[in-house]
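agent> fetching stored inputs for the 6-O-phosphono-beta-D-fructofuranose docking request
agent> found them:
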Amino acid sequence: MRVGVLTGGGDCPGLNAVLRAVVRKGERFHGDEIIGFLDAWDGVRERRTMPLNVDFMRGTLPRGGTVLGTRRGSPFDHPDGVGQVHETFADLGLDALIVIGGNGSLSVAHRLATEESLPIVGVPKTIDNDIVGTDMTFGFHTAVEIATEAIDRLHTTAESHDRVMVVEVMGRHSGWIAAYAGIAGGASVVLIPEIPFDIDKVCAHLNRRHDKGRYASIVVVAEGAEPIPGTLDVDEKVYDKFGHVRLGGIADVIAREVGERTGFETRVVLLGHVQRGGTPTAFDRVLSTRFGVAAIDLVHEGGWGQMVVLRGTDIVPAPMEQAVGRTKPLDMRLYHDVAEVFFA
Ligand code: F6P
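agent> prediction call returned; pasting tokens
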């Protein structure tokens, strides 16, 4: 078969490992020809491609980013975008397309598969781990490792200066990275988008710790965390051209407020895109490889409109529709039954 593949949305450690596995299984076991589209859907519309083969993919397993490049955006946003996608399928003689992406790319893939009857399968991707239908996405484990290592390092400098460190991690809709890194790094407070936070309680808790003779606290906050409405002034939201709210900066607000209310010296650490860069962990390399192998197999089973997902320890197909228009919140048992035990 002639199979196209693209990587869409924000990059994520493990993308190259998925591509490598698609190519390996496709070329060596199914006799496929794999065509990579550059810069996500733009490459499909504009027919910008590169051949992907086993030789080219050598050495890419541990490399972060994506050899294909990635972008946000959708063919549905262009006047004849969908027509261009159809033309690309016809002109290149494509038998299938594998879309490796987050909610946005999978929504587009789902529409093209259902409304346009195009032969498309999906692979869910995001460091945020918030895609519905899969127990975990690749890239998440890597982001948690990076955040945890940072928190470990912050403990010693925080202790030396008796400071409160406010560490902002990614997670626009969900607190998966914040909760995992907070638990793994021994944070005193973890603030997540799922639960609007009460700055009074945060300060009271930090004071209580201090009164018990403890000092130097680590507050981990997900970038999408918000205060209880009306309790704290936050900056006006800024949106990018794709309607994505530009997050980042809530840690500054919290640190300033904690400093003013408690008198503790505070510092802010924004981990930002460091969490998305560099080499994937061994766990993510394995998950990505399993996803890639399963995706090309799904192509050969004609599983159009489906994506490969992790359920328990199995990789299985699931309708892409599940990932569309919603996000998977943090499992609250992890927050209330585990993380909070260490806040007291
Ligand atoms: O969705 C993944 C993610 O890493 C979010 O955690 C973050 O808010 C966003 O992407 C950042 O996007 P950009 O790379 O466009 O700044």
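agent> quick read of the result: The domain at 141-276 is CATH 3.40.50.460 (Rossmann fold).
agent> awaiting further instructions
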